[in-house]
Specification:
The structure holds 2 protein chains of 2 kinds. By secondary structure, chain A is mostly helical. Helices cover 75% and strands 1% of the residues of chain A. Chain A is built from 13 helices and 2 strands. Chain A has a two-stranded antiparallel sheet. The longest helix of chain A has 34 residues. The two termini of chain A are 42 Å apart. The longest helix of chain B is centred in the first third of the chain and has 21 residues. The chains are: A mainly alpha, B alpha/beta.
Chain lengths: 309, 452
């Protein structure tokens, strides 16, 4: 019976072969540019390879090396700190801006939206030059402002901040840059979420006598939860794999105090040519992230189902 | 269960396929050696060259001259940008697509030589050994004494200063003999300018550059001649002490090398001098046009000595040319490399067109180096830098040099950010290098000597 069923299936495939042919380009391209690198780097996780000389099979050696790689641990810790520094305020700000731009009576809304979105379409090189001048310790704009305020209001005790040359402040500088760059993007996502909420809920609530705060608490926030989660996942992934912002602003220094996982991965692979080890690290961290995202998503789904019910 | 095992089988098969596809073809050692040809004028074919920036422009201008004597050779210079390294790495790894001639930074040369993917130039190039400074040649030769690269330009170091500022604050550069004299001059300038003018740029994130220059000047090493770590030495500690004194005196500007402020300092009175290599002159000349501010008359004086009477020469930077083993036209490629790098004519032409300072010693006696340079107030800068180049100490660079210097860079920037604790700095750094690079610590290191 099983053989018969298989035969039927193949007959069907042959019958609809043109359709399979039409959808094949994606699968072929994906196999070459998606699946192959994925599998190859899985294989690389078990070898020692500099890209040029012979690959040496070392089994779980790379995984063992990860355990006492203090730079990896430091970079993961930095990633966490930088994420905590900017993700919560960024999402709150993005939500507030989205609320404002969703007001029907506001004039020039399209202009504001474009303005808020501008940072994430600006080339990183331009941003780097401008923020380099902002954060510069000696003649930077921010420190100039701090010193000027201090001259007029000395009781505040403001001092110039060693933005990119102190181990603590370098993370803050990165967080400020990232927040500035990605708030607009998250705002657009949240705006879409807000506009997806049907007006009927608000009308019904108004008729029942709900004030603005109650409408926010019982309609907007619950229905926005999937959007928040989505923004959160994107931001977490973005923090882990962030590269150009840090590379251009601090190069991960001083010490390794602003090196996040993305920059660390770049260093061990494309600077040190330790492709085997880099694959191993990338796979391990990706696995952890994958499981994490899965958990967040599962909660998301139950939320959506609850909202639908 | 059945689907799972089928899935694992497919995965394993695909991984095996990936491995098979990725294994590069072996290159036979005989074909990867360049041998002398009977009649050099008869070589023919296309020679593709990869180089960057002004180096590519210099070779491009040289190609027609070369083709006059080698009419059957067609030299094409491909000016590639920042992605050159990764493109070249891919080409070398896959065994196809590499050029016939490629540029490398001196620092990186040994790393690529160690991979065995470059052509052995020993039969044709060994005879040039004495015509290049020993400290450069050493980076072109592997442990067995085989030659894989030819030095191109070099970077003898000195201090660039603004004549006007030094005059204004009464500093005589001829009186500066040691780094401590230099620091004193910095204090005078700082005081007389009311804190506005700093003597030099020395951002925490760029400390490694001056560290490398001074360490080489002071006879220090990162690795000994058997590839063991020996950075914890009295020489290194003296250098760290000077860096600390500079920073404690407050005479430095906290700007990163190549940043906007670093470059803008060329035309302003915020920075008075820049200790750097000969190629930096080109950078200054090129950049001052683009920044506002008063144009300065510059000058150069010798690197201050670590101790009174000590050496005042060091080298920073420089590049080499190599021929990848996979090149199909190595003989013609070598003819071009030899003309460009191992003849007075070729090297002087590149100095004239793009200010590439020749590593080929015979070229330095050419009259063009005696010309006074108006940009430097009539100083004979070309001649100035040629003095002492053969006395520069050779560094034992290893294939791990670039990676080692990233850790040194990180350690120094952290050191500057945490109050500059000198005690144990190099011992800790050495431990870290040992762990990260998997290399031994040399018996000559202070950490070993101290324990005995």
């Amino acid at each position: 019976v099983a053989a018969r069923a298989r035969q039927d299936r193949w007959a069907e495939v042959r019958r609809y072969r043109h359709f399979y042919l039409f959808i094949s380009p994606f699968f072929i391209l994906f196999a070459i540019f998606g699946l192959y690198p994925l599998l190859f780097s899985l294989y690389l996780s078990f070898v020692k390879w500099d890209g040029l000389t012979d690959q040496v099979w070392i089994g779980l050696g790379n995984f063992a090396a990860m355990l006492d790689d203090e730079v990896l641990q430091k970079s993961l810790w930095n990633t966490l700190i930088i994420g905590l520094l900017y993700i919560p305020p960024m999402l709150v700000l993005a939500f507030l801006f989205a609320q404002l731009l969703n007001l029907q009576w506001l004039k020039l809304r399209a202009l504001y939206r474009a303005a808020f979105f501008l940072p994430c379409v600006t080339p990183m090189v331009v941003i780097a030059i401008v923020f380099g001048l902002f954060f510069s310790s000696e003649r930077g704009l921010l420190n100039f402002a701090l010193t000027s305020v201090n001259e007029r209001l000395p009781f505040l005790g403001l001092k110039p901040i060693p933005w990119v040359v102190s181990e603590q402040w370098s993370k803050v500088a990165v967080a400020i840059l990232v927040m500035w760059r990605w708030t607009g993007y998250n705002m657009v996502l949240m705006l879409a979420g807000l506009q997806g909420i049907s007006e009927e809920y608000y009308e019904a609530a108004s008729i029942d006598g709900a004030g603005p705060w109650q409408r926010m608490r019982h309609i907007t926030l619950p229905l926005m939860r999937p959007t928040f989660r989505f923004c959160l996942i994107l931001s977490i992934l973005g923090t882990v794999y962030m590269f150009d912002e840090i590379f251009i602003l601090t190069r991960g220094e001083p010490g390794t105090s602003s090196t996040n996982f993305g920059l660390y991965l770049f260093n061990i692979s494309f600077q040190d040519f330790r492709f085997g080890y880099a694959s191993c690290v990338a796979y391990s961290v990706a696995l952890v992230l994958f499981v994490g995202a899965l958990l967040i998503n599962r909660r998301n789904r139950s939320d959506v189902e609850a909202a639908a019910a | 269960m059945k689907t799972l095992s089928a899935f694992i089988t497919v995965l394993a098969a695909l991984a095996a396929f990936a491995w098979w596809v990725s294994t590069p073809p072996a290159i036979s050692p005989t074909s990867s050696t360049v041998h002398p040809v009977a009649d050099p004028a008869k070589v023919k074919g296309r020679v593709n060259v990869w180089a960057w920036n002004i180096a590519a422009k210099a070779l491009n201008k040289l190609a027609p001259e070369f083709e006059k004597t080698h009419p059957a050779v067609d030299v094409r210079v491909d000016m590639t940008g920042a992605r050159m390294q990764s493109r070249l790495l891919l080409a070398l790894a896959s065994g196809v697509g590499a050029p016939d001639v490629s540029q490398f930074e001196l620092n990186d040369a040994l790393r690529y030589i160690a991979t065995g993917r470059l052509a052995d130039l020993t039969p044709v190039a060994a005879k040039y050994k004495d015509r290049f400074p020993a400290n450069l040649w050493k980076n072109c030769v592997n442990k067995d004494g085989k030659v894989y690269a030819i030095p191109w330009d070099m970077g003898p170091c000195a201090v660039y200063y603004k004549r006007g500022l030094f005059q204004k604050y009464g500093i005589d550069p001829d009186k500066i003999e040691t780094w401590d004299d230099y620091i004193e001059a910095g204090k005078t300038i700082l005081q007389k300018s009311g804190g506005r003018t700093k003597l030099l740029p020395l951002g925490a994130n760029s400390l490694r550059i001056l560290y490398e220059i001074m360490m080489q000047q002071n006879g220090g090493q990162v690795f000994d001649d058997q590839d063991r770590i020996t950075i914890n030495s009295p020489q290194s500690q003296e250098v760290l002490g000077i860096l600390k004194r500079i920073r404690e005196a407050g005479i430095y500007s906290e700007v990163a090398m190549w940043s906007q402020e670093f470059m803008a300092g060329f035309n302003s009175d915020t920075i008075a001098s820049y200790p750097m290599a000969v190629w930096f002159a080109g950078t200054i000349k090129d950049t001052v046009k683009d920044f506002s501010g008063e144009k300065q008359v510059w000058g150069v004086f010798r690197l201050p000595a670590i101790k009174p009477g000590g050496t005042r020469y060091s080298n920073y930077g420089g590049s080499v040319l190599v021929i990848p083993a996979q090149s199909k036209n190595k003989e013609a490629a070598w003819q071009f490399v030899e003309y460009a790098l191992c003849t007075v004519e070729g090297q002087v032409a590149q100095y004239k067109s793009m200010s590439l300072y020749p590593a080929y010693l015979p070229a330095l006696s050419h009259a063009t180096f005696d010309e006074p340079d108006p940009f430097f107030g009539g100083q004979r800068v070309g001649r100035f830098f040629s003095e002492g180049v053969t006395q520069i100490q050779a560094l034992n660079r290893t294939p791990a040099w670039t990676e080692a210097f990233r850790y040194i860079d990180q350690a120094l920037s952290q050191w500057a950010a945490t109050g500059m604790p000198t005690a144990g700095f190099f011992a800790n750094l050495e431990q870290k290098l040992q762990r990260r690079l998997g290399m031994e610590i040399s018996p000559s290191s202070l950490s070993k000597v101290g324990r005995r």
